[in-house]
Amino acid sequence: MSDASEVFATADLIDAHGDSIASCETQFRQFGARAAFHGPIRTVKCHEDNALVRELLNQPGEGRVLVVDGGGSLRSALMGDMIAGSAAANGWSGVVINGAVRDVAELAGLALGVKALGSNPRKSAKAGAGVVDEPVAFGQVVFTPGAWLYSDADGIVVAGRELPRP
């Protein structure tokens, strides 16, 4: 597994690998202190319920990236400072949320990549509804568990395997 501090640029990866990798069209905001992050994907699909997000990010991350498909809802946050703090402490490289986060000032100080659509101070439900490690799709990209995600200031790209750096 690669060191999350390795330097890469998504634009260079696209230039080198072309259409063999996917570029996410969704425009995310950066919330974590780690502006660039990458790693193998795990997924959660949930709607306004973050129990599964919490459960996964409390486990060893081993440099992985959690992709959360919250259906684009900005009604409640799927991650805040406590869950994100657990993710950073447990070795996750980053989290991409197709939905909202909260505790934005605290997230900015965590050594974790965090991309989300926006923020909302409202807590989510905690019922545990959703699915884990099934492919999820948004931004014209299918995020498959085990594929590799690369994220930086230019955006997010996804490849079926770890990519050599150009």
Automatic annotation (TrEMBL):
- Annotated binding of substrate, by residue: G80, D81, M82, I83, R102
Catalyzed reaction equations: 4-hydroxy-4-methyl-2-oxoglutarate = 2 pyruvate; oxaloacetate + H(+) = pyruvate + CO2
GO molecular-function annotation terms? Answer: 4-hydroxy-4-methyl-2-oxoglutarate aldolase activity; metal ion binding; oxaloacetate decarboxylase activity; ribonuclease inhibitor activity
Q: InterPro entries in the record, alphabetically?
A: RraA, RraA/RraA-like, RraA/RraA-like_sf
* Cofactor(s) the protein needs: a divalent metal cation; Mg(2+)
Q: What is its EC number?
A: 4.1.1.112, 4.1.3.17
Task: Read off the CDD domains from this record.
Answer: RraA_family
Describe the task this protein carries out: Catalyzes the aldol cleavage of 4-hydroxy-4-methyl-2-oxoglutarate (HMG) into 2 molecules of pyruvate. Also contains a secondary oxaloacetate (OAA) decarboxylase activity due to the common pyruvate enolate transition state formed following C-C bond cleavage in the retro-aldol and decarboxylation reactions.
Its protein name is 4-hydroxy-4-methyl-2-oxoglutarate aldolase
